[in-house]
Specification:
Structural class: alpha/beta
Mean pLDDT: 96
Shape: globular
Number of helices: 14
Strand order of the largest sheet: 2-8-7-6-5-3-4
Bound molecules: 4'-deoxy-4'-aminopyridoxal-5'-phosphate
CATH topology of the largest domain: Aspartate Aminotransferase, domain 2
Largest sheet: 7 strands, mixed
Number of domains: 2
CATH superfamily of the largest domain: Type I PLP-dependent aspartate aminotransferase-like (Major domain)
Number of strands: 12
Low-confidence stretches: none
Helix content: 25-40%
């Protein structure tokens, strides 16, 4: 049926401004492959642990399917309180400084945080390279994402952040372990950032979705351990293989959480109730065999590609951000186009960055697939 409505004219400027052409281009390229080695997806390749599945099923069978409190089901919140109490010494209760809320994914928490803090014209400092939605979240809030250039080692240090601060800066968004680089900041680095933000009266938001994906001897350091005014955002999706459940949480100063709760009450309302029950036992699960498996895959990436190109050795998450060697004289998109013609899918750096000199691979794939994909990439990078 033909429509007479000019929908293009009706779409908001904020929607028109969202840049998805790079992702669409990578996706369109992927369609040209019949049976590709897919190193493009940031999604775990393992199933949800049985105990979590069972708890979610039980909750459905017990009709725990209604709205929950806006902040989340108390049984799940208690596990978050306990965890953060142990890690940061934070206390949670009716008259404590800190509060926490369960969110619809990590992205849901990030969205609420940006909308609660940023007014039109404000600035938020984000790393470059960044997780794709960071600049979009600023745009949705009609604020500006100021990109903090972290090339070539991808460390978002206090020194680099300081150069981006203006009188419009409201917040800094940190991501360690990082997507797309796998870089993990040290305790000293995060402490310096926490101090910098405190000194400038800026909110530090820390996206710690990969907090469990850190490969020994590296350990995860959170700025919340040294600064009470940090907003911590974490997720369950990557850690427990349930990205589609859309579950995460945010914790920080209650006054800030209250602002986020107001927005949540009138938008997302609550995270899926049976799935909140499903994750109550999540922190009892021993993740060490899983982390070891991912560490081995990281080692495979390093062993196979270090000779042919440069990249920061990932110490966490499940990505590597790989430089297209200069002698190839190719951009990221040109390289991944070539890789696709050899049946390997990866994502060009420009999807995550102002530059297009790198590409991202995800090693959340079966070992044989990974080895096969890396063998092809190695030959193309030589
Ligand atoms: N932050 C980072 C750094 C991510 O990589 C992702 C997912 N790829 C998210 C947030 C969003 O996670 P979720 O699916 O829990 O919304």
């Amino acid at each position: 049926m033909a429509s007479s409505l000019d929908i293009g004219r009706l779409l908001s400027e904020r929607v028109k401004d969202i840049e998805t052409s790079g992702i669409r281009r990578a996706w369109a390229l992927a369609q040209t492959c019949e049976d590709p080695v897919d190193l493009s997806i940031g999604q775990p390749d393992f199933p949800v642990p049985d105990s979590i599945k069972k708890a979610a099923i039980d909750a459905i069978l017990q009709d725990k399917s209604g709205y929950t409190q806006t902040a989340g089901e108390d049984v799940l919140l208690q596990t978050v309180y306990k965890r953060l109490g142990g890690q940061f010494g934070w206390e949670f209760g009716s008259d404590t400084y800190h509060g926490a809320m369960i969110t619809s994914g990590t992205a849901g928490a990030l969205t609420l945080a940006c909308l609660a803090v940023l007014s039109p014209g404000d600035e938020i400092i984000v790393p470059d390279p960044y997780f794709v939605i960071y600049p979009t979240l600023a745009r949705i809030a009609e604020a500006k994402a100021v990109l903090c250039d972290t090339y070539p080692d991808f460390r978002m240090t206090a020194q680099r952040i300081e150069q981006c601060i203006t009188d419009k800066t409201k917040a800094v968004l940190l991501n360690s372990p990082a997507n797309p680089t796998g870089v993990v900041l040290t305790e000293k680095e995060v402490e310096e950032i926490a101090t910098l933000c405190r000194d400038h009266g800026i909110l530090l938001i820390t996206d710690e979705i990969y907090d469990e994906f850190v490969f020994p001897p590296t350990t995860h350091a959170s700025p919340a351990a040294t600064n009470d005014d940090v907003l911590v955002i974490r997720g369950y999706g990557k850690t427990y293989g349930c990205t589609g459940w859309r579950m995460g949480y945010a914790a920080g100063p209650k006054q800030l959480l209250d602002g986020m709760l107001k927005l949540k009450q009138q938008t997302f309302v609550c995270a899926p109730s049976p799935l909140q029950h499903g994750l109550v036992g999540a922190y009892d699960i021993d993740l060490s065999p899983l982390i070891q498996r991912f560490a081995n895959r990281r080692d495979m990436v390093v062993d196979m590609l270090s000779d042919v190109t440069e990249f920061a050795v990932p110490q966490g998450a499940f990505y590597a951000f790989i430089k297209v060697p200069e002698h190839l004289n190719m951009t990221g998109i040109e390289f991944i186009t070539k890789a696709v013609s050899h049946d390997v899918l990866a994502i060009q750096g420009s999807v995550f960055s102002e530059r297009d000199s790198h590409f991202r691979i995800s090693y959340a794939v079966a070992d044989e697939q990974l080895e096969h994909g890396l063998t092809i990439l190695k030959s193309l990078l030589q």
